[in-house]
Design a protein that fits this description.
Layout: E1 3-8, H1 17-32, E2 37-42, H2 53-63, H3 70-87, E3 91-97, H4 105-114, E4 121-124, E5 128-131, E6 137-143, H5 159-170, E7 175-181, H6 192-208
Helix pairs in contact: 1-6, 2-3
Bound molecules: flavin mononucleotide.
Residues 10, 12, 16-19, 97-101, 143-146, 184-185 line the site of flavin mononucleotide.
């Protein structure tokens, strides 16, 4: 019995191309993996703690091998809860819109919370940085208004997929699959249903094999 953590980061709900694709994935996943559970984390309704001065002091105290002060402990307790939910999963599905060539700020906020020394990565002068989230697969669904895939001519502007793959690789993932949903805006009304259908079909196929 595996636990799939689904992280949702578009605020557009039923109108979101990334969420629609993720829903097709999850529907197929639950059909083909009846014993597994799906934990959905909607980053727009999750009350994520601020990653503020106290949280940063707590992070640096860990990096420097120092004890936390009371106020750092309090801030860190909230951070730990978010990381615990992330680390408890066996598999991950992340859906995200492209915003200004990168990722939406709620997802950046979440990543700033979960990418932490001793929890999701380690550092030592001998070994350098090492990811600690190992042996787990992740599928990432990227929705974009324009086209950025190989051969589109827009590749250099895609800081959405490049950034996600960099951060996920940094914390240890090496089984990273992606689904592109594009172009959701720079397409004609006639083309849009086909773009969605292709993405949903790909999502279903990948979910069955996930
Ligand atoms: C704030 C904002 C910024 C955006 N920036 C870009 C962009 O840089 N490039 C692009 O191709 N589309 C951009 N878009 C369009 C979205 O990527 C597109 O609508 C996509 O389908 C969003 O995913 P969703 O439908 O799951 O919300 C932007 C949309 C918003 C709301």
């Amino acid at each position: 019995m595996a636990q799939l953590l689904y992280i949702e980061s578009s605020p557009r709900k039923d109108r979101s191309a990334s969420i629609r694709t993720a829903k097709a994935f999850i529907h197929e996943y639950t059909e083909t993996h009846p014993g597994d559970t799906v934990d959905t984390l909607d980053l727009w309704s999750a009350a994520l703690p601020s990653f503020d001065g106290e949280a940063i002091n707590a992070k640096y105290a860990i990096m420097h091998g120092e004890k936390h002060t009371d106020s750092e402990l309090k801030a860190w307790g909230l951070v730990e809860k978010v990381i615990e939910r992330f680390n408890n999963a066996d598999k991950y599905l992340i859906s995200l819109p492209m915003w200004n060539f990168g990722i939406p700020y709620v997802l950046k906020h979440y990543l700033d919370i979960i990418v932490q020394p001793t929890y999701t990565f380690s550092f030592s002068p001998d070994e350098g940085y090492k990811g600690l989230v190992t042996g787990k697969p992740v599928t990432v669904i990227y929705a974009r208004g324009g086209a950025y895939a190989e051969g589109s001519g827009g590749e250099a502007f895609d800081l959405q997929k490049r950034y996600m793959e960099l951060v996920l690789g940094f914390i240890g993932f090496n089984d990273i699959k992606s689904i592109l949903v594009e172009p959701t805006l720079m397409s004609t009304p006639e083309e849009r249903p086909r773009i969605m259908k292709t993405a949903e079909q790909e999502a279903k196929k990948m979910a069955a094999e996930f």
